[in-house]
Every structure is written in structure tokens, then in C-alpha cells.
Amino acid sequence: MKKMTFLALFLSSALMTAQAQTRTTKRTTTTTTTTKAPAAPAAPATPAAPAGPATLASVRTAEPGSTVTVRGVVVNGPELGNIRYIQDKEAGLPLFSNTLDALKNLMPGDSVEATGTLKNYNSLLEMDPVQSVKKLASGRKFAMTTVSAAELTKVLDETHEGRLVKITDVERLTTTGGQTATALVGNVNYLINGQAGAIVRISAPSTGPNGLVGFTPPSGKFDLVGVVGQHSPAGTPTGYQLLPRLSTDFVVAGGLPVIKGEPVPVAVTKNSITVDFATVNPGTTKIEYGATPALGGVVEDKTPVTQHQMTLNDLQAGTTYYIRVSSGNSQGISTQPAVPMITRKK
Fold it and tell me: Taking the domain 255-342, which CATH number applies?
């Protein structure tokens, strides 16, 4: 009995110890609750910046009927009618309207922004109608592509349509029949060096003192400036033509105001001499004079002209004066050696 009692007590004690170990080694799990902060409201989307005016090169790839806004520098005035050609660094585009006064008032060198619809007029891509045009500035310079007459085909093409170009080393302008052109006629085609396809179109509105209608082209070599246009009713990639604006687009001697001959006295008194001389191209007027070859006196007029005349006053009677004339413009200065002229004795 004692043994059995001891064994029972031992088993009972062991069981209690095991239960105690089980309680003490049980893992306790703690649950932590995290409260999430509300999300900040999304910032309002920044509106996209409005698209600026398109480049003329990109506009020239658009379909007729597209409405576009462009910027460029005007290269012609009313001498080509109610059309204004504009260009930027890469391309050109004509703007046309018979009714928009803001367009008609534009002059070469005006920087403008225009909005309107593209139109294909006898293969010429133009903006017609022009809905609005705004002058941004004036006096802007415009570049031109220069090639020799032998390389004329390099600029009479779609790439240069609407742009100002210069053709150098032109020897003559002829009628389409091959005769040398004399007094030019409006709305008539002529040819550079008599070459087929080298068309020069004279605009009827180019009249007045510097107009082309009635103007006779130079007889020697000259450079010819004009806008590249196109007229091809058949819609073929032909009919490119050069559109000179004024007689000043026929440039002799590289544009220098070359003095023609010697200056002459056209009126002489005992105290004055009126000096007259002419230049090939417009330039300023400057006359240096003196009683010795060292000269010393000077009179000047900054107005560019081709026929120059100025009067030297407060001279001494019966005295020989040495007179040197010169003329200048943006291309350079032309000067003649001094020549003697004598005032009257009485």
C-alpha cells in the first residue's frame, strides 16, 4: 500500500509540474491596432501651356484647309499686290487677303503673327483667308539664299517657295521669245539669261519711281533679288518663278554706290559752286573741298539717292578749289579722286 501510495503521489506531482511548465512556456500574442492617417488631397493638375505659333517649315507639311498660327518677317510691300510673303530661318509662306487692312499695311521688315487657313492656289501654298494679323515689331532683317545663275535650279523649288533669294551673275533678262528685255511690262514673264524655266514674273502693281513697270534692266552683269513663287494650274511640281519687287532688286556692282564718271560743276558764282554727280546705286552724298589738295572743308547729306547735287558756299572769288566726292551705303563706300573747279572772278 505504501509503495502504491508513493507511486501515485509521484505521478501526481510530475503531472502538476508538467502542467505548470506548459502554462509558463505558452506564447502570449499581443495585437497592435494602427490607425492610418487620411491621404492628403491630390494637387490640382497644372494646365498644359498653350501651343505657340508653328514654324513655317512645319506648316508647309500641313494639309490645305488646316487653320494655323505662324510668325515671320515680311519681305515685300504693296508692289506685289495684296499678298505679303513672310519667312523665318527655315521657310516662307505667302499671306493673302483682299479685305484685311492690317495685312495691306505691312511693309518689309515687319515682324508679324498671323492666323488663317491654308490653301493651295495653283500649287502655291498660302494662307487664305487670313483671319487675323498682328504686327509685333518693325525694322527686322531678313536673310536670303544666294546662288549663281548657273545654280538657279537649287532655289526654284518647293523648299524655297515663299522665301527671298538672290541670283548672282545674271547677264541679261530676255523675253520668252529670246529678245533682250527693255521696258518691263506688268503681269508678263521674262527669262534669266534666256534659260527655259528660269521665269521672272513682273508684278503689275510695281509702279512709281522705283517700280518695275517701265524699268529697263541693266545691260551688264547684275544680281537679281526676288521671292520664289509658284503658278502651276495643273497641280504639278513646276511653275516656280522669281518675283522681283522693285527696280532696286536689280543690283549692279554688288549694291555699292559706284560713282559714274567725274563730278561736274552745274552752277558757279564767285562765292559758290554747285557740284553734280551720279551713282549706280543709291547712297549718301559727301563732298570734301579746299583751296589745296589737303582739302579741309566738308558737306554731307545722309539721304540715299542716285543723282547727287550739293552747293559749296562761302568760297573765295577767282579761286581754284579741289573737290572730292564720295557716296556710301550698307554695302560700302565709293570715292573719286579730287578734281579742280574754279569760282568766278566777278
Answer: 2.60.40.10
